[in-house]
Amino acid sequence: PPRRKQPRRAGWRARGRTRTVRSNLLPPPSAEDSVAGATKGERLQRLGCVQHVADNRLKTTKYTLLSFLPKNLFEQFHRLANVYFVFIALLNFVPAVNAFQPGLALAPVLFILAVTAFKDLWEDYSRYRSDHEINHLGCLVFSREEKKYVNRFWKEIHVGDFVRLRCNEIIPADILLLSSSDPDGLCHIETANLDGETNLKRRQVVRGFSELVSEFNPLTFTSVIECEKPNNDLTRFRGCIIHDNGKKAGLYKENLLLRGCTIRNTEAVVGIVIYAGHETKALLNNSGPRYKRSQLERQMNCDVLWCVLLLVCMSLFSAVGHGLWMQRYQDKKALFDVPESDGSSLSPVTAAVYSFLTMIIVLQVLIPISLYVSIEIVKVCQVYFINQDIELYDEETDSQLQCRALNITEDLGQIQYIFSDKTGTLTENKMVFRRCTVSGIEYSHDANAQRLARYQEADSEEEEVPRGGSSQRGSIGSHQSIRILHRSQSTKSYWRTGSRKTLGSLLDPTHHVYPFSPQEKDITPDPKLLEKVNECDKYLAISRHQEHPLAQLSPELSDVFDFFIALTICNTVVVTSPDQPRQKASHGVPPRAHDALALLRSPSVVSLPEGEHGSLPFRELLSGLRKMQQGASHRERLGQPTPAIASNGYSSPADSWEPEYPQEPQPKQELRFEAESPDEAALVYAAKAYNCALVDRLHDQVSVELPHLGRLTFELLHTLGFDSIRKRMSVVIRHPLTDEINVYTKGADSVVMDLLLPYDARGQHQNKIRSKTQNYLNLYAMEGLRTLCIAKRVLSKEEYACWLQSHLEAESSVDNREELLFQSAIRLETNLHLLGATGIEDRLQDGVPETITKLRQAGLQIWVLTGDKQETAINIAYACKLLDHDEEVITLNAESQEACAALLDQCLHHVQSRGSYTPEKTESCVNVGFSSLYLASATSTVSGPSPSLVIDGRSLAYALDKNLEDKFLFLAKQCRSVLCCRSTPLQKSMVVKLVRSKLKAMTLAIGDGANDVSMIQVADVGVGISGQEGMQAVMASDFAVPRFRYLERLLIVHGHWCYSRLANMVLYFFYKNTMFVGLLFWFQFYCGFSASAMIDQWYLIFFNLLFSSLPQLVTGVLDKNVPAHVLLLKPQLYKSGQNREEYRPRAFWLNMVDAAFQSLICFFIPYLAYYDSDVDMFTWGTPITAIALFTFLLHLGIETKTWTWLNWTACVFSIFLFFTVALIYNASCATCYPPSNPYWTMQALLGDPVFYLICLIAPITALLPRWVLEFVSDFSTHTAAILLPKDQQGAQHSGHKCTIERGHRAGGPGGSGPRVLQTRRGCFGSMS
Amino acid sequence: MAMNYNAKDEVDGGPPGAPGGTTKTRRPDNTAFKQQRLPAWQPFLTAGTVLPTFFIIGLIFIPIGIGIFVTSNNIREIEGNVFMYYGLSNFYQNHRRYVKSRDDSQLNGDRSALLNPSKECEPYRRNEDKPIAPCGAIANSMFNDTLELFLVANESDPTLTLIPLKRKGIAWWTDKNVKFRNPPGTESLKERFKDTTNPVNWLKPVYELDPEDEDNNGFINEDFIVWMRTAALPTFRKLYRLIERKNDLHPTLPAGRYYLNITYNYPVHSFDGRKRMILSTVSWMGGKNPFLGIAYITIGSISFLLGVVLLVINHKYRNSNNTADITI
Question: A1230 vs A125, B32, B109, B228, CA distance in Å?
Answer without folding.
Answer: 45, 49, 12, 14
